Amino acid sequence: MKKDVHVVPFGARWATKIAGKADPVSTHKSQELARIAAVPIAKEKQSDVVIHRKNGTIRDKDSYGNDPNPPKDQKH
User: Which pTM was predicted?
Assistant: First the structure.
């Protein structure tokens, strides 16, 4: 089972967390730095990076695994 990597608010900072784990892998001063830290973890685990807003809702999701239905957008 793949474990997605989440970028979530963490107090005044942003955290990179692996789904199902209580403690963050790392914390960062910005959402973008947390996202950058999440990408190599997601590539290694062949999972997704799930980026959350400050209110906790999902803002974006990028797949780094073997997605059977890859998106058709060209944002990256």
Answer: 0.84
